[in-house]
Every structure is written in structure tokens, then in C-alpha cells.
Specification:
The protein is an alpha+beta fold. It has four helices and nine strands, in the order βαββαβββαββαβ. A hairpin with a 5-residue loop joins strand 5 and strand 6. The radius of gyration is 20 Å and the shape is elongated.
Length: 161
């Protein structure tokens, strides 16, 4: 019985490369000279800090631009609100979402059920496994899921016969 898995994973090496590029641009940009601006990568989170709200907005745009150039889906990037201290110093965190949470997994399985194809979709942790009798049905499911707009970027792995 053929199966495949639907997952939502971000390549953390690409995120690290994007952060490195943003740090190099930060070091070279004239408008950030002496601004105490900083970009740090900690596991699945990018921490931004700067002197004021305008600089934090520019940092966010810089990092998001670098992420999109490195083909990191912005659906998996959760931009937090900037925290501005009374002295004017600003901080912001950008979280990288990994895996499919339960609510979205339920949406995906319901969507697959609504296609009326002879396949079954089951939630297994942070991924959705789809199995069916024929390979053609699974390929139709892949095409249907790709055509639908879900709130996270989806990948298809472990296609087995």
C-alpha cells in the first residue's frame, strides 16, 4: 500500500546562512554605524535588538529579505511585535516554525477527506501520513494539497510503494 508523509520543515542551515548575510550587511551599512544593532540566532529563533523602533523595523526587513532570498518560506516565519523599553531600546524575536501543529494537521486531513479520493490521512506527531491503494490517487492528493493555500509551507517526503 503506497504512502507518503506531509511535513513542514525549514532548513536551519539556510536560516543560519541568511542570518550571517544579514549580520554582514548590518556591519557594512552606514545607517547602523554606532547604533548598537544586533542580530542573533538561537535554535529556532532570531533575536533582533537596536536603539529605536525605526532601526528594529529596518533590521526585521533586512532579515526577512535575506530569508526569502535563501528560499525559506515566510509562512514558517512568525514575526513577533517589537518590545520598546521606556528608554527607547527595542527588541524583537522572529520565530521559525517547525512541524505541523494539531489544528493545521486537522485542516489538512479534512481537506484530503473532502477530495473524495480513496486515501486515508492520519496525524502522526507533527506530520500527516497519507496512504492509498494506488499511486495515482496519492499523486492527485499531492497536486490538490499543493493547489490549496495552508498557513504553513508543506513538503512531501517518504513516498513509498
Amino acid at each position: 500500500m503506497p504512502t507518503f508523509d506531509i511535513v513542514s520543515k525549514v532548513d536551519l542551515m539556510e536560516v543560519q546562512n541568511a542570518v550571517n548575510q544579514a549580520q554582514k550587511e548590518l556591519a557594512n551599512r552606514f545607517d547602523f554605524k554606532g547604533a548598537n544593532a544586533e542580530i542573533k540566532l538561537e535554535k529556532n529563533e532570531i533575536a533582533l535588538s537596536a536603539n529605536d523602533q525605526f532601526k528594529i523595523k529596518a533590521l526585521e526587513e533586512m532579515v526577512v529579505g535575506k530569508l526569502s532570498k535563501r528560499n525559506v518560506s515566510l509562512k514558517n516565519v512568525d514575526r513577533g511585535e517589537p518590545n520598546i523599553s521606556p528608554l527607547g531600546h527595542a527588541r524583537q524575536s522572529i520565530k521559525i516554525k517547525q512541524g505541523i501543529d494539531g489544528q493545521i494537521a486537522k485542516q489538512i486531513t479534512a481537506f484530503i477527506r473532502d477530495t473524495k479520493l480513496k486515501v486515508t490521512a492520519s496525524i502522526q506527531g507533527d506530520e500527516v501520513r497519507v496512504s492509498g491503494k494506488s499511486r495515482d490517487d496519492l499523486q492527485e492528493v499531492i497536486a490538490a494539497v499543493r493547489g490549496h493555500d495552508f498557513p504553513v509551507a508543506l513538503d512531501f517526503v517518504n513516498f513509498r510503494d
